[in-house]
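Example 3.2
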Amino acid sequence: MTSLTTKNPTALRYFMEETLYPVQITGKTETQQIAEKAPVGYHFLGGNSKHILFLVRNKAHAFFSPTAHEAFLKTIQALALSLEDVAVFNTSTTAERVDMDRICSFFQPKIFVVAGPISNDLGLPDYPLNTPTHQDGIKLLYTFSFEEMLTDTQKKKLFWQAIKTL
């Protein structure tokens, strides 16, 4: 059996979710104290350093199909962004009810891209597709899912024109 080794920080984040060396502080470990204070979060892809959130719903994959994932990476690279700059959250991966207030308090997005027909589930009004708008100081864009854009060039063009304006 071979051992798994990696130096990729993104991969390590998924493998190493716990503190390696807990420190004993007043009867409780530091890990226990942090866990008691930490808010319940969401599992997401990316680093969210620029607070740009892509919301997707994909029941078949963790975030995207392999082809859509590649297209997504090319899209953010064309926008001079990296995966570390953005967050991708798949609403179908959580059993909890997902609403705009909880998402905004956790991710604190400056730009919020809803990719696919999810807006009604969040309690958001129906804004027109690919028309950037603002809500509560957040730049908001409803668009097609990346899976849809893979098969329809016109949808891809409409998305590209809209996303460049954010």
